[in-house]
Amino acid sequence: MGEFGWPSGQPINTQLPTEPPGAHSSNVRVILVHDAGPRAQGLTRVYVPRDVLGAQTGFSFLVALPPTDEAATASLRDGSALPAWLAFDGRALRFTASRVPSNGLPLLVRVQRGPLVMEVDLFESMHP
Fold first, then answer.
1. How many domains does the structure of the chain reveal?
2. Residue 68 included in any domain
3. HSE value, Cβ hemisphere, 13 Å, CA-based, for 78
4. Which residues pair with 10 in a beta bridge?
5. What is the pTM of this model?
6. What's the rounded Cα separation, in Å, for the pair 117 and 104?
7. In a domain, 1, yes or no
8. Is residue 19 within 8 Å of residue 1, measured between CB atoms?
9. Residue pLDDT, tens place only, 49-101
10. pLDDT tier at 1 (50, 70, 90 boundaries)?
11. Contact 52, 27 (CB under 8 A)
């Protein structure tokens, strides 16, 4: 079973809260599509409204992985470093984005903690 009580790797399609809930982060939708498990990687989709992309305050969101003492790492899917506008706190499992450049999205990020992998797809949303 996954952290949220669903079988790992199964479709969940549950909206997760943004962190911290702010004027701009509250319009960002974070959907946990598949829970990460030992035999299946997870998938989270993040929809960012166009008006949030260039906002001075940026936005942040959490990634759902089971708690452990081990910090997670994040990279682009090909293993390269995250872009300068996107930071990741591996202990808190929190992404923080500053002003996103016009060509910044879509973006596919890989978060790993031990054997667990969560792919995070960030997209521009046309609607808040």
1. 1
2. yes
3. 4
4. none
5. 0.81
6. 23
7. no
8. no
9. 888 887 777 888 889 888 888 999 999 999 999 999 999 999 999 999 988 99
10. very low
11. yes
6 inside domain: no
Q: How far is CA 49 from the centre of its chain?
A: 15
Structural domain harbouring 115: 11-125
Angle at 63 between CA 62 and CA 69, to 5 degrees: 100
Backbone region of residue 92 per phi and psi (left: phi > 0; alpha: psi in -120 to 50; beta: other values): alpha
C-alpha 116/C-alpha 48 separation (Å) is 25
- Using DSSP bridges, classify how beta strands 94-97 and 59-62 pair: parallel, antiparallel or unpaired: antiparallel
Listed as own residue / partner, the contacts of 10-14 with beta carbons closer than 8 Å and 24 or more positions apart are: 10/34, 10/35
CATH number at residue 31: 2.60.40.10
Average pLDDT, the chain: 82
- Pair 99, 58: CB distance under 8 Å: yes
